[in-house]
Amino acid sequence: MDSANADLHALQEGDDAALSRLIARWKRPLFLFAWTYLRNTTDANELVAEVFVRLYQQRMRLSPDSNLKAWLYTILTNLCHNHYRWRRRHTGASLDAACCPGRDGTEITLADVLSSDGPDPAHLMEKGEMLAALARAVEALPHDLKAPLLLHQYERLDYAEIATVIGCSVRGVETRLYRARQFLRAELTSHLREVREP
Questions:
Q1: pLDDT digits (tens, 9 = 90+) for 15-63
Q2: Which of 35, 122, 161, 168 is the 20 to 30 Å CA partner of 174?
């Protein structure tokens, strides 16, 4: 039994400190997935908290040999999808929206671009525009393509784990990843064409 399942078993036995250990282990990877899906820190934090609430509420229903990782990502993927659909129906400007992530995960800001001792501003601006175009393209993916792409590219889940999370076959995961990459390629090619046209 791995440590996550040992903590789940301890939680089922009434050891509430096991929940803290599970949160410490899974909070960051779950948050990164939710943030990448939603591009909003507040929403990502709220949904990850909801995952742990559900884990505590449903702890007795899980078998000791459950694939806890797949269960957590399944719950989070569904929450992200539902929240994203709700947000699209209730549009509004986000004060928290990312401009453009840099190499280290922080946002590239206008101050970074204008900094005199940093890299070439034109290069940073071009890179920032390309990253922003990629973020828009990922956001435009339908859920059935976005979820497997994020789980594979960012969370490094293998095809079998992704199949468990999204409820399809391994072959279905391969097909969805292929379609997602084709979509992104088409979107980014279109963006590059627009940028290069005078």
A1: 989 999 999 999 999 999 999 888 889 999 999 999 999 999 999 999 8
A2: 35
- Residues spanned by the domain of 76: 1-91
Q: What angle do CA 107, 108, 113 make, to 5 degrees?
A: 160
**Residue-wise DSSP of 137-187:** HHHHS-HHHHHHHHHHHTS---HHHHHHHHTS-HHHHHHHHHHHHHHHHHH
Q: What is the mean pLDDT of the chain?
A: 80
Angstrom distance (rounded) from CA 152 to CA 48: 19
Residue 40 tokens read as 């909003």
Token readout for 6 is 């040992």
* Residue 56 structure tokens: 């505590």
Closest alpha carbon to 77 in 137, 11, 185, 152: 152
Looking at the DSSP bridge assignments, the partners of residue 101 are: 107
- Report yes or no: 177 and 148 within 8 Å, Cβ to Cβ: yes
**3-9: long-range pairs with CB below 8 Å, 24+:** 4/68, 4/69, 5/64, 5/65, 5/66, 5/68, 8/59, 8/62, 8/64, 8/66, 8/68, 9/64
Name the residue type at position 187: E
The reply to whether 96 falls in a domain is no
pTM above 0.70, yes or no: no
The CATH number for 188's domain is 1.10.10.10
